[in-house]
Amino acid sequence: MTTLAPPDIDEIIERADAGERLSERDALDLLASRDLVTVGAAAARARDRHSNPDEATFIIDRNVNYTNFCVTDCDFCAFYRLPRDPEGYVLPKRVIFRKIEETLALGGTALLLQGGHHPGLRIEWYEDLFRDIKARYPIHLHALSPSEILHIAHFSRIDLEETLRRLAAAGLDSIPGGGAEILVDRVRLEIAPKKIMSDEWLGVMRTAHLAGLSASATMMYGTVDTWEDRVEHLRRLREVQDETAGFRAFVCWSYQSGGGSARGDDHAHTTAADYLMMLAVSRLYLDNVPHFQSSWVTQGLRIGQLALEFGCDDMGSIMIEENVVRAAGTAFRLDSERMVSAIEATGRRAVQRDTAYRVVKRF
User: Fold this and answer.
1) Would you call 221 helix, strand, or coil by DSSP?
2) Is the separation of the CB atoms in 126 and 155 below 8 Å?
3) How large a percentage of the chain has pLDDT more than 70?
4) Contacts of 5 (CB under 8 A, 6+ apart)
5) Mean pLDDT, to the nearest integer, of 77-106?
6) In the chain, how many domains are there?
7) Which residues of 141-171 are buried (b: 16+ CB within 10 A; e: fewer)?
8) Is residue 8 part of a domain?
9) Is 13 among the domain residues?
10) How confident is the model at residue 87 (pLDDT cuts 50, 70, 90)?
11) What is the mean pLDDT of residues 322-328?
């Protein structure tokens, strides 16, 4: 951040409260102010314009990583294994089915299915798996990040449009926002040079939205990115959302070091205050995204609860299973009862929702 003195942000906040669109300069000035109280309160008011201020939602789903084999070598990732690594795996159908059955037994409504960029899995493998899941279970299939989808298209030698059409026909319901990291190519070329670049990630999302598939939007910050890079990331998301309205929700989190990732401690250290400020500014800037999700899985439950005061209306998943963040050394878990208690402790009513933010149950 190059600003020498904290800017006067009152005028920016007034415009945000009036529903005016903020500029990138506005977002940077809010971040530079470090005024968590003022910016957080404005983000909470923005949240209340989009959702019921007396409620907070959560989802019961399961994050299943169908393979950890990957050829992109992202240096922030402690989860992946290279092909032929003895610690690598591809989950057989029977294991995935058992995980789905356990999820449904716990009242779950969705399967979040993501994995590495496996060089041996073509689109037929995914079609077969998706069809079998849908034939057996009444579950929403929230699967495959944009980078996985382009990887499947490339190794199957078909174009993006056909890949999405075939996956949707087999049962794909919506797309998670994984692999966004920071949508600035300078950053991506340093931390994940073999993964898709910014235009490609956004292109998959735009094409998927126009084909009728909704998605979530994400940001992982705190590697080699600057505050300016983070605002550029938000700008590009907002532009696509203006065009397609396909992003249901936004979630951001800080890079989790440890667990054997190549980056180790070579990253921009961030704090809980940084997270809450980034979240609040994102809520004010992304005026066209209806839902914001707390990242308690990476930040811890207390900060996750505080996120409801900084623009979030949703606590995300109870995380029946999570492997990627856990591999980096962070492991927070809740069950449904504790999630409800955590929400009620903030003075709100807990509401279980599905992936499309429809009410499943009010507590």
Assistant:
1) strand
2) no
3) 88
4) none
5) 84
6) 1
7) bbbbbbbbbbbbbebbeeebeebbebbbebb
8) no
9) no
10) confident
11) 46
The amino acid occupying position 360 is V
DSSP characters over 157-207: T--HHHHHHHHHHHT--EE--TT-S-S-HHHHHHH-TTS--HHHHHHHHHH
Distance of CA 300 to the CA centre of its chain: 16
Phi, psi of 98 (to 5 degrees): -65, -40
Q: In this predicted model, what pLDDT tens digit does every residue of 138-184 receive, in sequence order?
A: 999 999 999 999 999 999 999 999 999 999 999 999 999 999 999 99
* 19-28 contacts at long range (C-beta below 8 A, 24 or more positions apart): 19/49, 19/287, 21/287, 22/284, 22/285, 22/287, 24/231, 24/232, 24/235, 26/285, 27/231, 27/234, 27/281, 27/284, 27/285, 28/1, 28/3, 28/227, 28/228, 28/231
| 64 strand-pairing partners | 113
Do 339 and 61 contact (CB within 8 A), yes or no?
A: no
- Taking only the tens place, the pLDDT of each residue in 203-253 is 999 999 999 999 999 999 999 999 999 999 999 999 999 999 999 999 999
What's residue 258's pLDDT?
55
Rounded CA-CA distance 140/147 in Å is: 21
Q: In a 3-state reduction of DSSP, which class is residue 349?
A: strand
Summarize pLDDT for 105-121 with one digit per residue, the tens: 999 999 999 987 878 88
Residue of 273, 299, 296, 281 whose CA lies nearest to 342: 296
State how far the alpha carbon of 80 is from the alpha carbons of 34, 73, 181, 196, in Å.
36, 8, 16, 17
pLDDT at 13 over 70: yes
Residue 3 in any domain: the answer is no
The Cα–Cα gap between 255 and 243 comes to 29
Domain that holds residue 314: 23-362
Q: Under a CB-based contact definition with an 8 Å cutoff, are residues 353 and 59 in contact?
A: yes
Are the CB atoms for 286 and 237 separated by under 8 Å? yes
Token digits of residue 85: 């690594």
Tell me the C-alpha distance between 197 and 193, whole Å.
8
Within a domain: residue 175?
yes
pLDDT of 44 over the 90 cut: yes
Q: Are 266 and 299 in contact (CB under 8 A)?
A: no
Given this model, what pLDDT does residue 262 score? Answer: 47
CATH number at residue 333: 3.20.20.70
